[in-house]
Amino acid sequence: MANGVANGTTSRPGRGGRERVLAAASRLFATQGINATSMEDVAAQAPVSKRTLYAHFPTKDDLVLAQLRALVESGDTLHAVLTREDIPARDRLLAMFDIPAPATGPVRGCPFLDAAAEFPDPDSAAHAYARAQKLLMLRLVTDLVTELGVAEPELLAEQLVTLADGAAIRAMTLNDAGYGRHARAAAATLIDHAERTPAE
């Protein structure tokens, strides 16, 4: 099957090809990194012909951006946790430090930080999208901190997202999904000891 893909023949009909490509890209980017994954790797993993792959995603940059957008749309991000109304604000904030352990492969941390690191040009589409998601994360955290009645919500929110991003990077570097517990403890201290706005 893989040989057929490599030779440009279609192993399976194109129906659902885009979804298979995005799923394959997500797996490969998470396990081996974006720059280490070739378009040929994605086509073979999907599996689709290279013609089908390039029909949906003319360039690798197009594929990376689409994969990041699909990740957001899937709801499998911190943003989904931060916006859950059935969980208290403090618990949602601390959930940022629960780094999921992968079923297989290394701990990858935050996919948006990974994308920004692999596309260092701040004007590149992938980097710009990652930045937008990080700014959205800051806004959501600021809203939750404000809900807790903190006197300087913007300041605490910046501290919390910095802790969360740092924990994600160290978890990836050390390949330790449990590393977030250290930042979680620090975050809990910051939240619980932050000055509150006096009640009117």
Any descriptors?
200 residues; mainly alpha; 64% helix; disordered N terminus
Low-confidence stretches: 1-14
Beta percentage is: under 5%
> Whole-number radius of gyration?
20 Å
Distance between the termini: 69 Å
Helix proportion: 55-70%
Q: Could you give a short account of the major beta sheet? A: none
Structural class: mainly alpha
Tell me how many strands there are.
0
Number of distinct helices:
11
Q: Can you give a write-up of this model?
A:
There is one protein chain. The chain is mainly α and 200 residues long. Helix content is 64%, strand content 0%. It contains eleven helices and no strands. The chain has helices at residues 2-6, 17-32, 39-45, 50-56, 60-74, 78-82, 89-94, 111-118, 125-147, 153-174, 180-193. It is elongated. The chain starts with a helix and ends in a 7-residue tail after the last helix. Residues 1-14 have low confidence and may be disordered.
In summary, what is this structure?
The chain is mostly helical. It has helices spanning 2-6, 17-32, 39-45, 50-56, 60-74, 78-82, 89-94, 111-118, 125-147, 153-174, 180-193. The termini are far apart.
